[in-house]
Amino acid sequence: MKAINLISVFLLVIKISMSFSQQGLSGSLYFLERKNKPIKKAEIIVKNLQDSITERSFSNNDGTFYVTTNKKSINYILIFHPVLDTVIIYERNKIPFIFRDSILFYELSIFDYTITKRGSAIIYEDIETFLNFKNSNILDLAGKKMEIIPYLRKIKKHGVRALFLEKNNLTTLPKKIFTIKGLSYLDLSENPLDDKSKILIEKFLSKKDDVIIIY
């Protein structure tokens, strides 16, 4: 019973809404636990019936994406994101699209609670709570009017996979943020970052091709 309650309260899902056009598909990606804040820069991969990749596209900063591949030739549509890993959102004859008021709609469970460790599937909005769980790895500090990143030394020691810092008042980034263990996604959008910080980001990205930073 306790496990069922945890699933009902903390289950992380993506809502993917799509609509057909004559030329292709468009859609939006959201973390429901982040109160419909969009997933940014997720890669959309389309495979045809021969299992060849026919198109790669990225969602933009509003979480929307557009694919021009002929829908009749699509065998798989996959999402790749550092937070989500790789998720199949459509597989011909196995995962059908669902029509609701002409909008294609599908929900996915990202975490398998039979193997997920306690705390690892939760998006934390409080730093101290985040630090109290050994397996916590997603920290959402968006919109908190922060001018500095509090507890950064402790966050670095703890490790974090995805760090959401958008819509704050950050101007200067400490170099320490780029040495956080396991960091693969960092959202710094809508912060008044200075030029020095932007140069630091570019230098870091030139050496790390497996990390997404939005700014």
Structure description:
By secondary structure, this protein is an alpha/beta fold. The chain folds into 2 domains: 11-109; 123-214, Leucine-rich repeat, LRR (right-handed beta-alpha superhelix) (Alpha-Beta Horseshoe), CATH 3.80.10.10. It contains 4 helices and 15 strands. The chain has helices spanning 2-10, 127-131, 152-158, 195-207, and strands at 13-20, 25-31, 37-38, 43-48, 53-58, 64-67, 74-81, 85-91, 98-100, 103-109, 123-124, 138-140, 162-164, 185-187, 212-214. Strands 1, 2, 3, 6, 9 and 10 form a 6-stranded antiparallel β-sheet that branches. A 5-stranded parallel β-sheet has the order 11-12-13-14-15. Strands 5-4-7-8 form a 4-stranded antiparallel β-sheet, with no helix packed on it. A hairpin with a 5-residue loop joins strand 2 (25-31) and strand 3 (37-38).
